[in-house]
Specification:
Elements (H helix, E strand, L loop, with lengths): L3 E3 L1 H9 L4 E5 L3 H6 L6 E2 L3 E3 L6 E3 L3 H8 L5 E5 L4 H12 L4 E5 L5 E3 L5 E4 L13
Parallel strand pairs: 1-7, 2-3, 2-6, 6-7
Antiparallel strand pairs: 4-5, 8-9
Length: 133
């Protein structure tokens, strides 16, 4: 099944609507604490490696999502640039979630090989952000 990808403005519109969408931020806890969309739920797909630098898979990801959301929940998956959230959205749909969309560009934005932003994300579009947990 192909995952529907939406831009940050569409994500904001859905979150502000009465359709019941939730923003699932799959970035690491440290990335989330640095800034996120208001009301976002943080369940990392990958999290900080306790043994050293880098990120490691969160082996409890699906369990944590199931504890927070029913299979029929309307979920907007998002991360830093769009890669992890697309993987998370595919994983969720593959495990029976029926209303999952991916926010293209993530919180910061897609970048090219030189580090130039090619598709601005949530924060670069001046959409609301917070560091509140």
């Amino acid at each position: 099944m192909e995952i529907q990808r939406i831009d940050p403005e569409e994500a904001k519109r859905l979150l502000d609507s009465d359709e019941g969408y939730a923003y699932l931020d799959v970035r690491s806890r440290d990335e989330f604490r640095a800034g996120h969309a208001p009301g976002a739920v943080n369940i990392p797909l990958l999290d900080n490696n306790p043994a050293g630098p880098g990120l490691v898979p969160n082996s409890h990801f699906l369990q944590e999502v199931e504890e927070s959301f029913g299979k029929d929940a309307k979920i907007i998956a998002a991360c830093l640039r769009g890669g992890r959230s697309l993987k998370a959205a595919r994983l969720l749909v593959g495990n029976g979630y029926t209303h999952v969309v991916d926010m293209r560009g993530g919180y910061d934005g897609e970048i090219d090989r030189e580090g130039n932003v090619t598709f601005p994300g949530w924060s670069r579009r001046d959409l609301p952000t917070t560091t509140d947990e």
